[in-house]
Amino acid sequence: QNMGNLTVVTGFLLMGFSNTSDLQILHAMFFLLIYLVALIGNLLIFTLISLDGCLHTPMYFFLKNLSFLDLCLISVTVPKSIANSLSHSCSISYLGCVLQLFLVILFAGSEISILTVMSYDRYIAICQPLHYETIMNKESCVKMAVASWFSGGVVGTMYSASTFSLPFCGSREIHQFFCDVPSLLRISCSEKHMVVYVSVFIGLGLVIFCCISIIISYGHIFSTVLKIPTTQGRSKAFSTCLPHLIVFIVFVITGSMAYLKPHLDSDSVLDLLLSMFYTVVPPTLNPVIYGLRNKDMKTSITKFIAWKHSSERLMKLSFP
User: With 60 as the cut, is the pLDDT of residue 184 above it?
Assistant: First the structure.
């Protein structure tokens, strides 16, 4: 809409992975497959932890939060990208873009905080087992979860408010498959991005704090684990902790690179790949790494299948 010389942007155009119709459909199918895997994995973990009383412990309480965050994070970006590819439309409304940016940062920020709390939980369990029930009581766990969600909400509000306080009057094409701060800064017609940079550095401060906390927790965990006399005990602890650490490192490094690397004017496949690594890969891998490899979770799945099977048999006996 033109009002004199001022242009008011009422929507944006998201970047597709290809301009070819067949490749767009292929991308939609690929994203749909990833989305279904993430959806089923996270819903399964969330449901099992909710239903199984044996899993009502601090560790699984935080895992349930993580599954819900993963479910939300991937649902904010991927379904929209699939719909755009199938409809050959790239548009997103201005309000839709604001909401998408806010939610991505809210869920990603909360996820980093929850992963930090989970590492602290493991540290107390392995290094201070006698004090575990006292420190990780129900009230403390709820407070930690609320603080994690709150930190994500604060950063999300800052990022979206500062980014959309800038004027957009030129190109409406966002060089990304969802609304992201670096991509929006590239198309803003303001040269002064100081407010946004302040928000980014506050967010970065949160990430650095989480990284240091996780390094300290895992440092103590590994030094305690190395003192375990049996090789089996050591390998069990390492097989639990190392995958957690790898996913966190990939999540943080790709997210930080996407925000801190210099902005190029040309479209970059690297931008799309980096953003995929921190918005799509963790929600898909987390259920496998944190939950479904876990012995208690496997037992819970077996119990759930057995219960379902026995209830079906009862139904058949009741209504022959």
Answer: yes
Per-residue pLDDT of 14-25, as tens digits, reads 877 667 777 888
Structural domains in the chain, CATH included, are 8-307 (1.20.1070.10)
168-178 pLDDT, tens digit each = 876 788 888 88
Concatenated DSSP letters of 50-91 = HH-GGG-SHHHHHHHHHHHHHHHHHHHHHHHHHHHHHHT--E
Q: What percent of the chain has pLDDT over 70?
A: 87
For residues 238 and 251, what is the distance between their CA atoms, to the nearest angstrom? 20
Beta strands in 103-251 (DSSP E): 173-174
Q: Are residues 241 and 218 in contact, defined by beta-carbon separation less than 8 angstroms?
A: yes
DSSP structure string for 172-186: -EESSSS--HHHHHH
Q: What angle do CA 297, 300, 304 make, to 5 degrees?
A: 140
What does the block give as tokens for 260?
């801190």
